[in-house]
Structures are given as structure tokens and as C-alpha cells.
Amino acid sequence: MPAQDPSVPSEKGFFLLLFLVNLLSITGIMMVMPMAPALVNSLNMAPEQIGYLAGGATLLSAIVALLVAPWLDKVARVPLMAMCLVVRSLLLCACGFATNLEWLFGLYILAACFSGPIGGLLMAAVVDITPIQQRGKAMGAMAAALSLAAVVTVPLALAISEFYHWRYAFFLFGGIGMALALLLPAFAPVSLLAPTQVASHDNRKTAFSRLMLLALATVSVQMFGHFLWVPHFASLFQFNFGFSGTLLPALFAVAGVISLMMLILCGKWADQGKGKPILISASLILVLTLVSWILPLGQSQLSMALIFVLFSLYMAASSVRSSTTMMLTSEIPAPSQRAGFMAAQDSVSNLAMGLAAMCGAMLISSNQQSTLVGIEWLSFGAIICVIAALGFVWRLFSNESSGEVNNVQLDAAPVLEQ
């Protein structure tokens, strides 16, 4: 499917809608975690149950996306995306009417079932409408939704919960989802309103190739290593390093802003064929920051400035690595396989995140002062994942790989037919 001219106004508007849908999906999963105190007081929920709510939704979203991935490319992308978004938004609104914990769990997890297909269809649509030379910037913009959610939409949901009621946060974001679902077909290119046509010369099968499976493994290892740490950063900073709890929102906001800036900059570099040095540099920064948590210095009080620097570097490097990898792996499948592949990629990422969070919790413990014990195991595991993921990427885009693709390289912008 040839990429359309990005200067067409409708495509710019459509890309903005896709970005907002992605931002909304991320917010829907992330917002329940900081809202835990309000849910505990309102629904008599045990504090630890918020992990089951968010984790269960993430894992179920991933499983559903994997199950439907083979069929996503047989239907029109935008109509199916809009339909899933409508149902998901209605269920989110219904969560606001929940009067007990059981109803909230059931409705919220059911809503998550429609998030998986939305993610795959959304990323496939982004690739379809974006020229190869601009995909780095486009994928960087999509990856920036995570940072923007941490800086804007999740704090907004928390503020609504604190100053009004947690129910209004579900009503607000459910209503926004309904509005976006109505706008998607109006702004979508005609090519995305019908099923993708398989070219006569495209002899690739519906089943994923070995190269595609290797790409999925790469993304899984990256996300597993990242989420070994992410759930425990706040506790580590406050209880191990003496960081003030009142400054944690500012810490995450600063890291989010820096990540946004680096995503924009590195997206432009990736479009210039600099994917290889970006991935190497990001991986090196990740290793250095992970080592810093387990050095003798890391076992004592760290200055606030040093924590701001190290955490911002870690989050920015992780975001840049994920965005660059996403851009490169998106070029592997044929247009007729792209939605299924992107849905599978989103699914394995969610599965890896959920499993990593549980493994991380099993690897560490806390003492009577709430200090985390065993954080070195998290660093060792994350470092191994960083190195392994870089090796996978090298193998994935090497001319010496399996032979299925001989022209997809980190330093080459054009992508030819396999």
C-alpha cells in the first residue's frame, strides 16, 4: 500500500486523532494506580488490590490482542478501531457507576479486552499513512504519548479524583473516547476504510515469519527489563535514598518532559538513518544508570539533583530505545500483515510488563523501615535484558540473519520488498 502525501490536511488531522486515541488508551490503564486511595475509601478496597486491577487489565488486554491478531488484517482498520473504541469508552463510563469492588473489577477488565485490538490497528494505521522517511518521527510521537500521559492526563485524573470524585475521571475519559470514535471515520484516508488488499506478488503467509517472531522477542525482552524496575522506583527513591515523597510528582514530571524532548530529537535522527548509534547510546545509558543504583554510592543518601539526573536519563533512554525499535520493526511486515503484527507486538509488550512486575516483586523484600532489600537483583536482571535486547536487534537487522530479509538495515531508510 503506497504511503499517502503527508501534506494532505486530512491525514494530519487523522494522525492527531490516532495520537489522542493512543494517549487515551495509556491513560485508561495508568490512571487507576494513583487513584488507589480514593478507591480504597469509596469501595472498601484493600490497597494491594490495585495491583490486581491494573495488572489484570494489562494482561487480559494482551491476551485478547494476541487471539485476534491473525484476523485484524482481514477487516477495515478504522471502522473496527472506532467500534472497539466506542465499546471500551462505554464500559469506562460504566465504571463510574460501580457501587462495589466486584462491579468495578468486572467492567474495567472487560473494557481492557477492547484495548488490545485498538493498539494494533492504531500502530498499523500510523505506518500506513506515514512515508518511510518520516516513520521515526511518527513512532516517536506515538511513544511520546506515554510521557505525555505521565505529565498531563494521569495527574488530571488524579486531581479530579482528589478534588471532586474518582467517578468523574471515568466519565471524562470515557466521554472523550466516544468523541474520538465518532471523529475517526470522518478524518480517515479512504484506503483505511476498507480491508487491506494483499498484492498479487506478496507471497508471505498469514503466519508470522521467523524474522517477525524475532522482532516480537526483541520488544518483549526490552519491556521485561524495563518493568523489572519501574513499579519500584518511587519506593526506592523515598525509602532507600531518602528522597522527599512530596517531590515525587515533580520528579516524574521532569523525567516525562525530558523524555518528550529526546523522543522528538532522536526521531529526526532515526529518519536520517542513525538508528544504530541511537540504540547503542540508549542501551549504554540504561546500563550506566542501572549500575548506579547498586554501586556503594547507591546504598547511601543520594542528592536530589543526582536522582533527578539519573532517573531522567533512564526514562529518556528507555523511551528513545522503544521508539527506535518500534520504527524499525514496523518495516518488517507486509501491509497486509501489519495490523496483526502490531497488535501482537503490543500484546507481547503488555505480557512482558505484567510478568516483569510480578517477578520484580518476588526478587525484592523490605525491612521494618520499608527499605527495599535485594535491589541489586533487579539491576542485574535489567542489565542482562538490555544487553540481550541489543543483541536481538543486531541479529534482526543484520545481513547475516536468517535470510528472510536481506535489505532491512538499521542504517538504511528505504525498505524494499522481501
Write the layout of secondary structure elements.
Elements: H1 9-30, H2 36-43, H3 49-72, H4 77-95, H5 101-112, H6 115-129, H7 135-163, H8 166-187, H9 210-229, H10 233-240, H11 248-271, H12 275-292, H13 304-329, H14 338-363, E1 365-366, E2 372-373, H15 375-396
Antiparallel strand pairs: 1-2
Q: TL;DR?
A:
The chain is 71% helix and 1% strand. The protein is mostly helical and 418 residues long.
Explain what the structure shows.
The protein has 418 residues and is mainly alpha-helical. It has a single domain, classed as Growth Hormone, Chain: A (Up-down Bundle). Helix content is 71%, strand content 1%. The chain has 15 helices and 2 strands. Strands 1-2 form a two-stranded antiparallel ribbon. A hairpin with a 5-residue loop joins strand 1 (365-366) and strand 2. The longest helix is centred in the middle third of the chain and has 29 residues, at 135-163. The protein is globular and about 60 Å long. Residues 1-9, 198-206 and 399-418 have low confidence and may be disordered.
